[in-house]
Amino acid sequence: MSETPHHVHARIEQENIQTANDTNLFDDDEMEDESQTRFQFDTPKCVVSQEDSTMDLDVASQPHVASQHHVASQPPTRAALPDRGEKRAANSVLPDKRRIKEVDYSEKLRETVYSQEELIRNMQTQVEKQKNEHEQNMKEMKRQWDTTLRERQEQLATAQEEIERTRVQQLAREREQREAELCETLAQREEALKRKTNEELRERESAILAEMDRRFQQEVLKLKARTCFAEKESELAKMEQRFSRRPRSQDEDVDMNIPMPGDAGQPSPCAKPRPGNSSLDAIKRIKKTRGITHRVRLVSVGSEEVPQQHSSEDNGPLPSQHDTQPATTMEDAIARGVEAALRRVLIDKEFPLTNKHKHSPRRKRVEEKELRQEKAAEKSYEREFILGEVRRLFKDVFSISQDSDFMLHEPASHDDVYAYEYEDGPGPNCNRLAFDLKGGPKSPWNDKVVGLLLEELHRRGDQESWPFRRSEAYFKEVLQDRYKRLRTVWMAAQPKVTAKGGLETPAEVEQRLITKKDESLKVTRQTTRRKNKYSRRVTVLDHLVKYKTDEDEEDLPAWQWLQKLVRTLGEAGMSSEESDVENDIETVLRVKNMTWRRAIERELDIIDHQRMLDDDIFAPQGSKPMKRIRSSGNPKTSRTEMDGLPKALYNEEWLAGLTKRQIERLSISDEKFNWLRVAVA
Prior knowledge:
Residues 113-207 form a coiled coil. Keywords: Coiled coil. The chain is mainly α. Helices cover 57% and strands 2% of the residues. The radius of gyration is 65 Å and the shape is elongated.
């Protein structure tokens, strides 16, 4: 053991290097050195350097020595231990056996492990840092990509909106073009329909007039018969009066020549026959056979004042049948009425004393208030829809195409109406409704007809799913108003009593209807021209005020004042016009004079002339405006004055001629309207 490895040159075989902790490290014959070996390995001083433990071995003939040297340089490992037989064989082969010291590399290994762990921690730190940086970079890139994507989406949305706007504009242009074509087609169809309607109207009017002429001829024949009968009665009355007159002296002679009782058997020589008695008796007999005429004037007095007179004609009491017949008729009427009332109460379960439609005045006021609120809350197009459906209902039920066709409506017979109201009549026929045109909309018969129409209207609303629904009171009022309008049309077509006391002829009725229709159309034309004139002036002023505001011109206040003037006057403040022909060539409009309005013709002419000067407001195509003539000789307007205007808009001279009560009725506004004098520069 004292020799160092540097002086050993003997060739040795490879031996497994074992650690001190391995069991059976040496054989039994080497157990004596176990304690020494354990002591040497356990002490810290047994660690030798790598240079001292290296052996100079000849490994030329043993190629595995290098690998053994490499293995020896590695940290000690636990290898498989040879058994005892192998050890003895090795010892017999190698007599110069040497014991090799085991070098402790644990500290080196610990340092290596520590350094590697440190390196690993550093690498982990670097990896973590790189990971964080990578995550930050990815977040930054993601944020940039999100921003870019958002911008692209906004650009895409803008492009889509632009495309949609372009498409909508194109569709709007196409729609306008189609609407223009449809309007033109509709105008042509309306013109054709109007011509056809006018032709049908003429035919209907001809039929109506023919029917009226036929009825009139019947009435004339009846009147002629009655007139002839009345003339004959009048002639008979005159004859009776003429033959019944006698001179006073003749009557006295007759009285004086009356035979006395003593002279009964002797005829008086002075007695004369009464002239006319036979004729008078004949006239009375004729009157009795003819009866009483329809033109007899009756005077009634109280039953207690009737004198008991017995003429020579009433030689006896009247037959009993004449006395009992009126009483029997009255009893039959009362019996029928009681029977009808009992049938309604006991069988039909109708109790007229407890009428469900009869309400107290307070309840009636509440219902009227609710109806007014319902009418005030509805839109104009909703009202037009309801009125259109009501008109369609009347057209379908009464087979009319327009209001003038209702002139031929055959009203309900008087007997049916009387039987329904006072007896047990069946009432209106559901399959053929007819109004009682002599009664109002709330008469029992007409109320029943309105109720049937109301049921049909509700049925149509449910079947057609109307978008607007109203209460029963609302629909009932609309139906009653429609009946009033049609009744007015029917009444206007009936013959009227002339100033001479006779009925109108069919020609006179036709002329009256034509005149009334012409007047109505004339008023409609004047109203339409007045509305168009107001809307045209408002459009001109709105355009000019907007243009002057954008250009910031000096005359803007003047145009704003004109705009306020026209809007304050409104449509009713515009003057009406009457068409006329000037010089038998040109059709002109004569402006009616409005005496109550302040003279503003010069201001209105400025607005009207601006329409022809500025082509941006109205296109130059179309019909040119007609010539308007203002003159003091023109007719005055028939419309009443407007109330509630500022005092500056009324004519001072006209106001001065009013009474205090008339001025209070005007309700002049307290608003101050500053007047400006406007002139064209």
